[in-house]
Amino acid sequence: MITRWLAALVGFIVVAGIGLVVGNFSEEQAGNSWALVAAIALAVGFVVYAGVEYAQTGGFASISSQFGMRTLALMPVAIAINIILGAAVANALKVPIYLDSIGTILVGALAGPIPGALTGFVANILWQYIIPPPFQGAVAAPFAIVAAVIGLLAGLFARYGALRPRPDRPMSQLFSGAVITVAVVGGVSWLAFLGYEQIIGPAGFEVASDETLFVILGWLALAMVAATVVGLIVLLFVRRDLTAAYVVVAGLVTGVVAALISAPISANLFGGVTGAGTDFLVAAFRQAGADIGAATLGQGLISDPVDKITTFFVVYLVLNAMATRTKARFPQGERLIEGGAEVAEEGDEWRGAST
Amino acid sequence: MAGSVDLIEGRSLPAAIGRPGPSAVHRLNPLTKATLATTTSVAAVVLGGLVGPLLLVAVAVVLPAIAAGVVGRLAKTALLLALPIALSAFLVNVFFFPGAETVLFRIGPITATAEGLGFAFEIMARIMAISGAVTLFYLTTRPADLVLDLERRGVSPRVAFVANASVQTVPAMVERAAQITAAQRARGLDTEGSPWRRVRGIVPIVGPVILGSIAEVEERTMALEARAFTRPGRRTLLWSPADSRAESLVRWGLLIGLVALIGLRIGGVLA
After folding, report:
1. Which of A264, A274, B192, B247 has the fewest CB atoms within 10 Å around its CB?
2. Is B130's CB within 8 Å of A321's CB?
3. Half-sphere exposure of residue A325: CA atoms within 13 angstroms, side-chain side
């Protein structure tokens, strides 16, 4: 057991080291390449762990125990949801978000971090190679590692109870939840704003206003953010569900991580342009004077948190609409049910036998 | 999905399984074609520039497509796949290229530059190579063949199931969405008109599609358990695509060539 973890750690460090030496760390890109290197090193660490376990035991028991038949049956549905919604949003709607990780986050929440990561990874590979044309994506496979990290994070958030309903909490708790959420979002926005000033120079809000196109797009983006915010406020204060605050934080963290990993991939492979609605944002950043790497990172830091908060919100609504008994049968299902944490603690021993 | 094994309903093998493909390219082992598509895509990125990717398109996409007799369909499918990205890459790079100075012309506040045009053509060549390579693979390979071949090589039947079932679930879910749309419109849902109305129309369509599909997971689970899908040991495949020593050599040759190319690029031999 300890050998596997040590081997995985060595694999992670070796790849991270190679990445730091070989990686293209010019001044502007230094901030966005380390995340990609870390993600690749994480994937290699996982492969090493699996390889050592296979060499020791001739199987993948500790990994495959997370894959009951129920999880396996859910994964194709999740992959199809990812691909259909992702393709529809990218090809038809032309809005600067993706919505291609609802299935990934759903599997992460219901089945755990490893199934979530594999769902994201496999979805993007299949999307590029064997899904029939109207839904095929020409640029999906290089982003498979981003999708894997999204699934992993979603699984971890759900494991620690971030998606468990917390209805009918007292007003004081809801209020402090709202304050903390606003503070986190505000803090991250402030950091992002400082980052933009570093990258692009003084970023006054009046700069872009002489171009009608960007003003309209800005309003569109704002409208979508506003819709999500209104939904979350309804969740928080009408249903008095404290989880709304957790959803925002989980989505924000996942989004920032996804942006940091995907920006260097997108910038180096495609010059930041992937044919989706996000290209408008890249164009806007470039018009403001950013180079390709900075423009892509800027686009990601706007699109991804909004996208992931929306996605986590949708997944939370889907989970709430599912019957409790259906949820509870998934490996991580107890952690998605009101008051389910205690049940999960004592259920861990016998659960392996039932799935 | 004609020609795929329907694992879910447990029907018998369709006639297409095991039937040889119409051309030598079709009859290649699926893994060989997948390797070719992947190495072509990666090589196009590694080579960069304009000449390299276009040469790759000619050698690794157009020639095999001619041999397979799918040039027409390849051109159509690959263009449809690449068009949105190519168009976007063209517009964004020509008009918003950072640091470009050679002005071609101006439209209002935005400026077209020569540097941007050059970069746009490079990105378009790259995207053409990637979408061409993937489309060639797609047109000459049945998804089920690839999955069966991978399973023969020791990939877990669980992974094979997920891949195969995903390919079938996509059209099934689209069909379900169409049925639900029709049903909701019969109940008075407005799916045309102003953007706001359309956005509001998404909820009563997407909701039932996702929840209905998840509800089906339960039935599938029981069906697969009842057929002993999770029992230990390997399954015996009744048929899998042919493979040969020569093809194995070609695959390793492609991979070694790709690694060499990356080495040359990092070493600074290729500009």
Report:
1. B192
2. no
3. 2
Please indicate whether, in this complex, the C-beta atoms of B109 and A210 are within 8 angstroms of each other: yes
B chain contacts of residue A77, beta-carbon cutoff 8 Å = 169, 173, 213-214, 216-217
Which range marks the domain in which residue A34 is found?
1-64
The DSSP output letter for A163 is T
Of A41, A64, A87, the one marking the end of a domain is A64
Among residues B238, B12, B91, B161, the alpha carbon closest in space to that of A76 is found at B161
A124 contacts chain B (CB < 8 A): no
Q: What is the ipTM of this complex?
A: 0.82
In a domain, A350, yes or no: no
Q: How many CA atoms lie within 13 A of A108 on its CB side?
A: 33
Residue ranges of the domains in chain B? 27-141+241-271, 143-231
Q: Which amino acid makes up residue B79?
A: L
B165 touches chain A (CB under 8 A): yes
Q: Which residues of B touch A57 (CB under 8 A)?
A: none
Check whether residue A46 and residue A186 sit in a common domain: no
Structure tokens at B180: 């639900």
Express each pLDDT in A297-337 by its tens digit: 878 887 888 888 888 988 988 898 888 888 888 888 888 88
Contact partners, residue A25, CB within 8 Å, separation at least 6? A33
- For residue B209, the chain A residue with the least C-alpha distance is A81
The model's pLDDT over A157-171, given as tens digits with 9 standing for 90+, comes to: 998 888 888 877 788
Q: A84, B173: Cβ pair inside 8 Å? A: yes
Contact A42, A12 (CB under 8 A): yes
